[in-house]
Amino acid sequence: MRKIFVALWLSGTVACASAQLPFPWNRVVNDSLYSETLGAWRDYSVYLPRTFEVDTLRQYPVLYLLHGLNGTNTAWFEILNAQDVLDQLTASAEAKEMVVVSPNAGGKIGDGNINGYLNMPGWQYEDFFFNEFVPYIEGKYRIIPDKQHRAIAGLSMGGGGATSYAQRHADMFCAAYAMSALMDLPTDYENASGDKDDSPLSLLFSSVKANGCAKYVEEADEKTLDDLRSVQWFVDCGDDDFLLDCNISFFQAMRNARIPCQFRVRDGGHTSEYWHSALYTCLPFVSRCFGN
Amino acid sequence: MRKIFVALWLSGTVACASAQLPFPWNRVVNDSLYSETLGAWRDYSVYLPRTFEVDTLRQYPVLYLLHGLNGTNTAWFEILNAQDVLDQLTASAEAKEMVVVSPNAGGKIGDGNINGYLNMPGWQYEDFFFNEFVPYIEGKYRIIPDKQHRAIAGLSMGGGGATSYAQRHADMFCAAYAMSALMDLPTDYENASGDKDDSPLSLLFSSVKANGCAKYVEEADEKTLDDLRSVQWFVDCGDDDFLLDCNISFFQAMRNARIPCQFRVRDGGHTSEYWHSALYTCLPFVSRCFGN
Amino acid sequence: MRKIFVALWLSGTVACASAQLPFPWNRVVNDSLYSETLGAWRDYSVYLPRTFEVDTLRQYPVLYLLHGLNGTNTAWFEILNAQDVLDQLTASAEAKEMVVVSPNAGGKIGDGNINGYLNMPGWQYEDFFFNEFVPYIEGKYRIIPDKQHRAIAGLSMGGGGATSYAQRHADMFCAAYAMSALMDLPTDYENASGDKDDSPLSLLFSSVKANGCAKYVEEADEKTLDDLRSVQWFVDCGDDDFLLDCNISFFQAMRNARIPCQFRVRDGGHTSEYWHSALYTCLPFVSRCFGN
Amino acid sequence: MRKIFVALWLSGTVACASAQLPFPWNRVVNDSLYSETLGAWRDYSVYLPRTFEVDTLRQYPVLYLLHGLNGTNTAWFEILNAQDVLDQLTASAEAKEMVVVSPNAGGKIGDGNINGYLNMPGWQYEDFFFNEFVPYIEGKYRIIPDKQHRAIAGLSMGGGGATSYAQRHADMFCAAYAMSALMDLPTDYENASGDKDDSPLSLLFSSVKANGCAKYVEEADEKTLDDLRSVQWFVDCGDDDFLLDCNISFFQAMRNARIPCQFRVRDGGHTSEYWHSALYTCLPFVSRCFGN
Q1: D173: closest CA among D58, D52, D61?
Q2: Cβ contacts (< 8 Å) between A288 and chain C: which residues?
Q3: Would you say the pTM of this structure is higher than 0.95?
Q4: Backbone Cα Rg of chain D
């Protein structure tokens, strides 16, 4: 017994040392599905909590966690170490056990497939997400398929995507958490792609500009405002972030519309470390928002 | 100008977006030196702060940051992302600009070179560290070569190493920060290597047992205790860590000997995330301890 | 309207400025009840959340928050500003709306009524607490009267009291949070009262010694251990606290008995500031433990 | 010995229990001086660090800590418990030992003496502060009387005062920390005093409006901007604070002028708890800014 324990320790699976994290393990699975809407296979990564494979009748809440412009579905787990924070916060119950899903909304620059979360000519990703991806995931992974158990979060382009999704589909999410979010296109970026108007980057920037998150709130009618109040909102952006101003504008629009919205400005820029540390606030927040 | 900025952003060098982190960049260099003591080439990694290559006359304080049993010199930077935290905390001045050095004290299991920081038959690593490594590094990287500008920290086996080094060489370090430290061999581990007595693991465990950090304090004479009081100590260990008890014993020995020592028990186990987050306490602490 | 708002601001009711804290207000009420058990009137303070007087059919969870040796029922509110932290954490939903009750377990030194939370000759306070006080409070203030909505916490003598109560009445509490707790009588304090053996202080110290919290766990049978596992435990003690060792012993006893228990050692001593800041951990913890 | 220790504990001087806080004690002194400028006696409170009365040749850095509209010189100590945070952070060296001074810039409403930190007809407080108060204090309390050892901070009206003082007297302060600062008069407050134009409140509001902190930066010439860069700035305001927008405007003006400025938005409103907790950031910040 001691030998096994030492062997595990030595082999680098350090988490086993924790009294609170015995077998079974949580894990991240990479998989893909074929999208009729997009006419392509799309990758995704999914974090399954440690009880998932033993409590085989249990259903879980879900967090859709969106990557940024340069990321793919694996970024949150392979670069930003989301699993480490999930492990720790669920062990101490600061976060509920949940399934966390990252879809691939584009891909590495140079592949010609920078596309983003919004619908644009030739890339109906938002349609794919709601019509194909969500039903597929929630059928496959024992997720409680209702608003009170579904949250969305993301960083940079994914933070803008998470906010836009929760705005236009307020009936779908109980909570939205935006990190360093591309809430709108900064003035400097208009036509900054340097490419032809139908390049992937130009189309992406146009879609972001057309879907400004503050403008959406400012132009909303009373019915829409009421719908927005059914979601719990959190905006988190660094004081050195070049996107801070559009996050401020969004928060001010929300406050002026009397839609409760948490707002934090912490130390930092548009960096991996900011997003990693944001999980310490994000995961407890969505856990509190989830129904029981 | 805008195109360059967008291009940088798109290319994934996200830190460039921070107003507080313009050129020049900090960076991590991997290099090696030949040790006469060990009769072998030894790798090391060194983090150079962002001003290092422009303020070419400036000298810096240094932090020796020691890896754990399964790590090598690259672990703190490639797995634990120490650079991200260094970048953020130096940008906001919560940490001073410093050189951070990780030597390789062993290597991956299976290579037959699990050896650790302490002297043992056939592996005089402590001699190498003080007689060869420190002088080499401090000559090469414009480090202020005195006690008031030299600190040491480490995780697990490296936390025990950092503590032992600062105990036996109190004239060398102004501060020592131990994370989840292997302060002594847990009772269960005696003879647990399952190997012959002269296996690398058996030798390592014997050296740890022979150098118990609490025992060192309990058996110290008045002169030694005075020397220990010239170092500033910090012990940080998770409440789920299987090494917590030996950290408690060390802290209690220090307190009983009236040697000031900070002690923290945070949430977590013997995990990467614990060590990554410990840097938020460690780096400001050693920065406060550095002289001016 | 503006005049009213300015007037409110100027008059010092600064909380009114918060968009998240409109009328109605939360408030603290001081009251008393007659105890047949003790043959005396006993004071208590109760914090009522802001919805209490408008949602007149709503029932709330309850936290019993115990003062220390020199305190009375008002200490948590008038000295330690518990209301400020409750206001902030409930506004952001990090803590659930709850009723918080502080009974008076003694009184100021010199009044001859230092008596504590435990039964002792002439002072059956534990009997009073469970037979008279809890039923009275939970009938009067619309509290959900079951284990899943009842937690207990306290500082110093009150931290020991909270732990002992939850040990002997595990069916009553879903959570127990001990701050700088008098878990046992430090060796130095035996006979330290300097008074006759039947002085209030001597009786108090004897009762603490007779009810050591670590010993209770070490001597518990399997049935009792199972009962203890039905409570969620949290121990929080400063690294400069003279009671740290008995808190460590309690945590180690719990861990050895495989009873999950959170443990934190933060910076600080046996001070008001430690207890005030402990509420930032305590209130979210008990909120997570409360049933729905 | 034991009796004395118990007696101290019992008597409520709980800080004595900390191994890191032996005699001598730090303390807060209330005193007053006569102002020729104002033609009146003015009260002040001063916190002296624990070594002050034993290291009788030692000189200290100083923090001027300004109260808000409804406060007086005692507010930071008697209501906001600044001493508790100072004690803890200096014990762990997260803050340097410093003298902290609160002058009385007005007084309770109803006394007809709401006057503020800025010069206005009949109340040349800024002149008093720099010509009389600072020289008096720094002569009396062994303060190092130079820019590198002098910082300023304040809450609400005092946060605006601290910012304005550091703007117009950049040669005097190495650091300025603004909490929930009245950086400008909110639009709603113009003429909101409801009083005659020469009432104390009208005069105060006029002085705040005339000294808008963002405007000062926007209108500054190059020489002034360079001076402002010699101060280290920190802005800290809650997401529920009715003054958040003027703090945002100030930060944006600073960033646009390329003057480094830290900015944080934490959870909370215009409340005592926000200011108390701000000290945990403020005191380490000014300590890092102080010269050696």
Answers
A1: D61
A2: 93-94
A3: no
A4: 19
Other CB atoms within 10 A of residue A74 CB: 17
Distance of CA A242 to the CA centre of its chain: 20
What gap in Å lies between CA A65 and CA A159, rounded to an integer?
Answer: 9
| Cβ atoms of C174 and C148 closer than 8 Å | yes
Please identify among residues 49-68 of chain A the ones whose CB lies closer than 8 Å to any CB of chain B: none
Q: Which of B102-111, B260-269, D69-78 has the lowest mean pLDDT?
A: B102-111
Radius of gyration of chain C (CA): 19
Contact call for residues D289 and D175 (beta carbons, < 8 A): yes
- Is the confidence at residue C233, as pLDDT, over 80? yes
**Do the Cβ atoms of D47 and D82 come closer than 8 Å?**
yes
Find residues 263-282 of chain D whose CB sits inside 8 Å of chain C. Answer: 267-274, 276
CA distance D221 to chain C (A): 35
How far is the alpha carbon of A135 from chain C, nearest alpha carbon, in Å?
28
Average model confidence (pLDDT) across chain B: 89
User: Which residue among C84, C114, C274 places its CB closest to the CB of D271?
Assistant: C84
DSSP chain B: -HHHHHHHHHTT-GGGG-TT--SSPPEEEEEEEEETTTTEEEEEEEEE-TTTTTSTT--B-EEEEE--TT--TTIIIIIS-HHHHHHHHHHTTSS---EEEEE--S--TTTT----SSEETTEEHHHIIIIIIHHHHHHHTTB--SGGGEEEEEETHHHHHHHHHHHHTTTT-SEEEEES---S--GGGTTTT-S-TTSHHHHHHHHHHHT-HHHHHHT--HHHHHHHTTSEEEEE--TT-TTHHHHHHHHHHHHHTT--EEEEB-S--SSHHHHHHHHHHHHHHHHHHS--
Provide the token pair at D190.
Answer: 């113009």
- Give me the pLDDT at residue C101, please: 98
The model's pLDDT over A236-249, given as tens digits with 9 standing for 90+, comes to 999 999 999 999 99
Nearest-angstrom CA–CA distance, D233 and D181: 13
Whether the CB-CB separation of C67 and C73 falls below 8 Å is answered with yes
ipTM field: 0.91
pLDDT tens-digit readout, A112-165: 667 899 999 889 999 999 999 999 999 999 999 999 999 999 999 999 999 999
Provide, as residue numbers in chain B, all residues whose Cβ is less than 8 Å from the Cβ of A271: 14-15, 17-18, 84, 87-88
For the stretch D154-171, pLDDT in tens is 999 999 999 999 999 999
pLDDT of residue D36: 95
- Distance (Å, rounded) from C-alpha A44 to C-alpha A159? 17
Is B15 close to A109, i.e. CB distance below 8 A? no
CA distance D23 to chain A (A): 37
**Is A181 part of the contact surface with chain B (CB cutoff 8 Å)?**
no
Query: Does the pLDDT value for residue B7 go beyond 80?
Result: no
Q: Is D256 exposed, middle or buried (0-12, 13-18, 19+ CB in 10 A)?
A: exposed
pLDDT tens-place string over residues B123-158? 999 999 999 999 999 999 999 999 999 999 999 999
Going by C-alpha positions, the residue among B107, B224, B222, B233 that lies closest to residue B163 is B233
* Of the partner residues A20, A194, A270, the one whose CB lies closest to the CB of residue B3: A194
Helical packing angle, B244-256 and C244-256, nearest 10°: 160
Euclidean distance between CA atoms C188 and D220, whole angstroms: 65
Question: Could you count the other beta carbons within 10 Å of the beta carbon of residue D28?
Answer: 17
DSSP three-state, residue A27: strand
CB pairs under 8 A between A and D: 22
Q: What is the pLDDT of residues B248-287, one digit of tens each?
A: 999 999 999 999 999 999 999 999 999 999 999 999 999 9
- DSSP string for B29-87: EEEEEEETTTTEEEEEEEEE-TTTTTSTT--B-EEEEE--TT--TTIIIIIS-HHHHHH
